[in-house]
Amino acid sequence: xxxxxxxxxxxxxxxxxxxxxxxxxxxxxxxxxxxxxxxxxxxxxxxxxxxxxxxxxxxxxxxxxxxxxxxxxxxxxxxxxxxxxxxxxxxxxxxxxxxxxxxxxxxxxxxxxxxxxxxxxxxxxxxxxxxxxxxxxxxxxxxxxxxxxxxxxxxxxxxxxxxxxxxxxxxxxxxxxxxxxxxxxxxxxxxxxxxxxxxxxxxxxxxxxxxxxxxxxxxxxxxxxxxxxxxxxxxxxxxxxxxxxxxxxxxxxxxxxxxxxxxxxxxxxxxxxxxxxxxxxxxxxxxxxxxxxxxxxxxxxxxxxxxxxxxxxxxxxxxxxxxxxxxxxxxxxxxxxxxxxxxxxxxxxxxxxxxxxxxxxxxxxxxxxxxxxxxxxxxxxxxxxxxxxxxxxxxxxxxxxxxxxxxxxxxxxxxxxxxxxxxxxxxxxxxxxxxxxxxxxxxxxxxxxxxxxxxxxxxxxxxxxxxxxxxxxxxxxxxxxxxxxxxxxxxxxxxxxxxxxxxxxxxxxxxxxxxxxxxxxxxxxxxxxxxxxxxxxxxxxxxxxxxxxxxxxxxxxxxxxxxxxxxxxxxxxxxxxxxxxxxxxxxxxxxxxxxx
Length: 596
Fold this sequence. Notes:
- By secondary structure, the chain is α/β, with parallel strands linked by helices.
- The protein contains 21 helices and 14 strands.
- The chain folds into 3 domains: 1-129 and 306-317; 138-291, ABC transporter type 1, transmembrane domain (ABC transporter transmembrane region fold), CATH 1.20.1560.10; 329-593, Rossmann fold (3-Layer(aba) Sandwich), CATH 3.40.50.300.
- The chain has helices at 5-33, 36-51, 54-107, 115-126, 130-137, 140-151, 153-200, 202-207, 211-263, 269-291, 293-312, 369-377, 399-402, 420-424, 432-441, 445-449, 468-479, 498-511, 524-527, 547-557, 588-593; strands at residues 329-337, 344-353, 358-363, 384-389, 392-393, 406-409, 418-419, 458-459, 486-490, 516-520, 532-537, 540-546, 562-564, 570-572.
- Strand 1 (329-337) and strand 2 (344-353) form a beta hairpin.
- Helix 7 packs parallel to helix 10 (269-291) and helix 7 crosses helix 11 (293-312).
- The longest helix has 54 residues, at 54-107.
- The two termini are 20 Å apart.
């Protein structure tokens, strides 16, 4: 379930309430104990030195020792609770944010952004920063100023003025650096995204000698980050230095004022030292907040962005569990428009498959086949129309409930780090019987046994141990794991050799009547095993119906549409679509890849 902003934040606040209340309670006792050194100085100057009593000094030192020991324990416990709060933030937000990031990556054809997870990391780091504890200590400045006021009103007024000056510096620091820090975060995230995207194409960059050009562009983006970072760092450092100097200056003035009162006979030396110490303690949290302002500001910006991310995610209310589907598939007048006002990628496509029927989708490159497939899986949502599985709109199925009933092999097959068996089991608990059965249904059991460790062979996404064709066949076994009722294959034979394609054809033949199958292909070796065909052209239905009827209609319309292919197979050759002048320079495929 994807939570809304309100639900996620309410849950987070509820989880944080107890540890933060404990931190606030401990801050109360910590700050009370921090009064002890000032009281010690007051007693030493006004009593011990006046009475020359070593016993009094010893008793005072024992009392201060006990107080400082308690302070050590409570301050340590407070810091540990702060870390616990950070872990709660990460554990509470990470699942919801990860689901959103994965869903966004699926809508962008696998090109998701991990910025949301980086924001969760920034929030976690915030709860490890000393600046956050300073926020709990800062309100105690009022208490310290009040104690100083009780000692002497003139010293109290001076302390209040000093506190207001430090508060003004903190507010000025926020006003001066807020926009720069947010712009810096945005630029740094853009540079990181560019590098992540480039690493996905590392093989192409290395092969074509593009590495230097790639690095040059990345350095250019980093230079933009540096250009923003320098003025931000200058302002931040300058404000931190100014705050430290002002704090030292007001303490010197406080001591000078206290000394004047001592000379005038209105205060004692102990009072002068104690009030100066208390003022330093009152101003220390403000100085620490200014010094840690960048971390605090980044945490605040991350919290806001996470709120926007969670708020923008479409909430899926808790739905009643639906019975297992039989596989009946219905698409009603599907329309899908790419963002930014581009033309329709899918325009009025409808289809209907009874449980156990199969459909082949063919068409020229850029005809909208992959877009239609993503709509049929429910990963993309149509601009209009609906996709129904057993009369239930796919939006009514939670993905966790729908996933086991779906089998899917995308065009670009990716296996996950782990063993072959774990990949076939969809990273769940490995049921050996079901894993082997899925591999046998995909006719890939013998191939897996030929791997170095068989089903226990470790899959490395960047290793050449398993070829693209083998990955595609293992992905088919993953799609057939369990008892899927709807199997969707997007050009599952693009990397297969003759033996692999024959095994795929046998697997499709065996699926007839057991699952509803939709396959995107150009090969008649697969078409001959399906019940219906759908021919797409520019996102519109050109032909749809039983396979024999569609093949006959295509032959009548264009005798060269069905041509003999290599190895005795028939290749369905769709005539190229005339591209209007306004669309030249950007293919349909490129428009599909830009969909998010």
